Amino acid sequence: MSIPVSIDTQEITDLSVAVLAANEVLCRGTESVLGSLPAVRAVHRCDGPDALVRFVAEHTVDFLLVAAADAHWLDAVRDRLSGVKVLVLIDESAAPDQFGDAPVPIDGFLSQHDLSAHSLWDGLRRCARGELPMPSAFARDLLARAETPASAQRMRTAKLTSRETEALTLLVMGLSNKQIARRLAISSHGAKRLVGSIMLKLNSPNRTTAAVNAVRAGIVEGL
Length: 223
Known about the structure:
five-stranded parallel β-sheet, transcription, about 15% strand
């Protein structure tokens, strides 16, 4: 039975969401909470990559929520997730750098510990608006890692793709995601994913910190 949730769903509606997790309690719990959101039309629970492949082959999926422990499964479905926004459900042990080289771009992070109807809705809403939602503790961890003595060296050797380097240069110039998209002739969502990947690789919880860290590490010149 759906639990009424008092939230404003005017921004996005009629969502189809898939949940990928081996932990049945986490998977069923997330499915249940998602089902209580008025903006969510359908939720499908997948206990492995094969189940997800079968589902996305026959249905449109707007969001995929994947447990951090099972994020390696994304490699098996990377070619099937075009246009799907990916949110990772992290626990207290999750480290930001473990997602820097994820097989697919990550669109945001949600805390398993604080999972609720409101936190799920806030994550979906912010992600749809082009933001990169993440728990405050995760963001603080990113900042702490960026401030360690070895951080600049790690960032200098960060494996940025040529496209990410182009986007980073434009980011340092102060361009918005939409402006970056126009300059690179890609979609706004594609630009947002590039920026999100850059933020993770540079241990940066936001665009401003990513730009500062990039200049500080000598990856790009200040403009």
